[in-house]
């Protein structure tokens, strides 16, 4: 487990978060591979590239467990609420402990999601396709809840509420909460420490660098660039995809019209991770599936991150992979 604290220079709440994190770690987990580091974020471009939505921001294996929908990159002081609803400069010790424990026990290594491939000799594209076959729910109740979640994101840009899901689950003689836990365990969706839906691949309930503007519909967040490319195929709609490179923040857009795509810049490539980390893809792998303005930029990033195995693919290959993984996800069974 890797923990990063993103902060602006001289952040007044950095020491508070460090103190509470130390207390939480003492009682939450025993992980000899865990590393905690602080990262100074000097400007808004760096905040955008790293995912800092205020100072300080905590990342656990690249994911912000306290992310809030609608929050964007920011250099301002970030405010949190303690269990009594009071505003404070850092999450409470209890909230930090819950986030750490939830992350540490949230899945089994490498078979948990689309970006997290096995240690076999499969290529990253093949591994991603195999994951979809494993993660797609076959149980009728799970499938009904899953489809309801996906359609809610597609039409409203957000996950459905508990009442809606309970109505869907009732005819199957089960509860929405039970089905959500099952979907979470297979990494079809991800639940946060508060049991709310944090992701339903390809959608994210929290801000990411990958946004999809659906024609005649909402703007949705995608878990990674492959997921973003799969959304128009899944919904059979036109869309405008915007993303940024993980270094430099270079903007990349993909226009999807009538099933045809146009990349800007046309030289853009995608890094397809084969990272064999431990745990769900949302927490370990999706952050490594990004677009770059050209192959030189992608190769430079890969050379600086040799611990993350993977390969660069061109735009058409990325589109094909997105369509293959997500194109039939809402198809009737």
Automatic annotation (TrEMBL):
InterPro entries membership: MerB (IPR004927), MerB_lyase_sf (IPR053717)
Source organism superkingdom: Bacteria
Signal peptide: none
Keyword Zinc: no
Keywords, alphabetical: Lyase
Molecular function, one GO term: alkylmercury lyase activity
Pfam families membership: MerB (PF03243)
Protein name: Alkylmercury lyase
Organism: Amycolatopsis tolypomycina
């Amino acid at each position: 487990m890797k923990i990063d604290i993103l902060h602006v220079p001289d952040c007044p709440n950095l020491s508070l978060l460090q103190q509470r994190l130390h207390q939480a770690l003492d009682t939450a987990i025993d992980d000899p591979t865990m590393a905690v580091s602080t990262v100074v974020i000097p400007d808004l471009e760096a905040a955008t590239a790293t995912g800092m939505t205020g100072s300080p921001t905590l990342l656990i294996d690249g994911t912000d467990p306290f992310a809030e929908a609608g929050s964007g990159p920011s250099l301002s002081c970030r405010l949190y609420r303690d269990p009594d609803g009071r505003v404070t400069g850092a999450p409470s010790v209890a909230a930090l402990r819950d986030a750490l424990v939830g992350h540490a026990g949230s899945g089994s290594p490498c078979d948990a999601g689309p970006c997290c491939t096995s240690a076999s000799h499969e290529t990253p594209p093949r591994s991603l396709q195999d994951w979809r076959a494993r993660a797609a729910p076959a149980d009728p109740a799970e499938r009904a809840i899953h489809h309801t979640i996906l359609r809610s994101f597609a039409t409203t840009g957000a996950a459905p509420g508990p009442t809606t899901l309970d109505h869907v689950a009732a005819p199957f003689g089960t509860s929405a909460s039970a089905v959500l836990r099952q979907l979470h365990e297979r990494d079809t969706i991800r639940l946060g420490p508060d049991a709310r839906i944090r992701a339903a691949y390809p959608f994210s309930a929290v801000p990411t660098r990958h946004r999809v503007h659906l024609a005649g519909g909402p703007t949705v967040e995608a878990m990674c660039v492959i997921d973003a490319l799969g959304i128009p195929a899944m919904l059979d709609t036109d869309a405008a995809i915007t993303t940024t490179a993980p270094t430099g923040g270079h903007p990349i857009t993909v226009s999807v019209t009538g099933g045809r795509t146009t990349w800007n810049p046309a030289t853009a490539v995608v890094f397809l991770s084969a990272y064999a980390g431990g745990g769900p893809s949302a927490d370990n792998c999706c952050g490594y599936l990004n677009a770059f303005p050209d192959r030189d930029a992608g190769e430079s990033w890969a050379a600086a991150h040799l611990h993350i195995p993977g390969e660069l693919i061109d735009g058409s290959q990325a589109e094909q992979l997105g369509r293959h993984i997500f194109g039939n996800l809402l198809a009737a069974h």
